[in-house]
Amino acid sequence: MKNFYWGTATSSFQIEGNIKNDFTEWETLGKFRNNGLNPLYENGSNHWLNWKKDFDLIKELNQNSYRFSIEWARIEPERNKYSQSALKQYSEMIDYLHQLNIEPFLTLHHFSHPKWFHELTPWHKKESIFSFCEFAKIIIDLFSDRVNYWISFNEPIVWALAAYGDAKFPPGIKDLKFMMDAIKNMMEAHVCIYDYIKKRNNKAKLGIAKHFIIFKEGRNWFLLDKKVTNRIDVFFNKMLLNAFRQNRLAHWFPTVLKYDSPIKLDNKIDFWGINYYYRIYAQFKFNFKNPIFLFPKEPATDMGWEIYPKGLKKIIKLVAATGKEIFITENGIATNDEGLRKMFIKKHLKVVNKAKSKYNIKGYFYWSLIDNYEWLKGKSKRFGLVRVDYENKFDRIIKPSGFYYAKLIKKYSNKKVVQPVNE
């Protein structure tokens, strides 16, 4: 796979540390606690102070690209007040990636917000579009000459479900109408960003990193299991893909949700990012407010997720029907078993390699470069190719899977393997 982007992905809040935002605010208020006692975040992986060493690791592990995000709360900690020192450091980070011949893929929104956002312009209100676009325009103005690949939103449906569905993310409002309004406003903000980026750099490409899950009926003999599985599959996997082509954001789920709204998207998206991790089973339950029970049958990761590489092929085929370029923007496993992680990478890359000959797949990003804070879970779920020693000054240690991924990159790039590693 020559002319292919090989990389890893991270998000700013999950690794940077040294930040105050809506998530740290909720932790302070007692919303995020480990057994009600200890704060979960505790400066992430301290990447903000160790970014240059981390970027050197990317280069050492044969990667030619890196997906990361800008922390909005760091740039605009107070409404309309911008941190020049933070902008300067992000600029230095992008310059250093280019110095290492690593292509930056920059995400503008990856779940977190400034503390003021939900009070003043929450996503379920139209004012949110302006707030986010103003922030995004500042970033685009500064970096459009050095960044060719942009991602407006990471997993907008996942965020909206967590914020307005089960209310585990801030602002923590349980309201499905608000949830759909928030998704719509995010997509309208995406169009605002798309138009602006094209004016600044018409060669730049903008996409969305969208989470996809394989849903399977829990009981294949039970018709209602099949029906709820179909409804959640359409909502989670297909709704946004359809919205961009049909200019309508719509979904119907009996007794739970009915939403149908025009939205002028005009297919303004250059690529779809696939975030894929697992398969899950769905069963109908007799509860009008919540008629779905979701569960894994064969949990194999520390997140309790089933490993199902074949599902990636199905998702690639689904997304390819849009006619847009495809990047695997996240694919990874939380485990302390390095043999299991290597197996996970190997099997998923086999799927990508085979699909590459048929579909327009441009790159693959393993999640994650380094161990990180996992949303709602803390630091015990280790996704990284590089271990972070949280008890010893955040020291970095490349794991066997990190070297293994580097070896596979060489293999699939048809180059001589520089550092052979035993499987």
- Spatial ordering of strands, largest sheet: 1-2-3-4-5-8-10-11
Total individual domains: 1
Q: pLDDT below 50 for ≥5 consecutive residues: which ranges?
A: 415-423
CATH class: Alpha Beta
Order of helices and strands: EHHHEHHEHHEHHEHEEEEHEHEEEH
Per DSSP, the total helix count is 13
Could you give the distance between the termini? 21 Å
Q: What is the fold-level CATH name, i.e. the topology?
A: TIM Barrel
Describe what you observe in this structure.
- This protein has 423 residues and is an alpha/beta fold.
- The protein has a single domain (5-412), classed as Glycosidases (TIM Barrel).
- The chain has 13 helices and 13 strands.
- It has helices at 12-16, 22-28, 51-60, 72-75, 84-99, 117-120, 127-143, 156-165, 176-200, 223-246, 310-320, 338-356, 400-412, and strands at residues 5-9, 65-69, 103-109, 149-154, 205-217, 248-253, 257-262, 271-284, 292-295, 325-330, 361-367, 386-389, 395-398.
- The strands form 3 sheets. It has an 8-stranded parallel barrel, surrounded by 6 helices. The protein has a two-stranded antiparallel sheet with strand order 6-7.
- Strand 6 (248-253) and strand 7 form a beta hairpin.
- The relative contact order is 0.13.
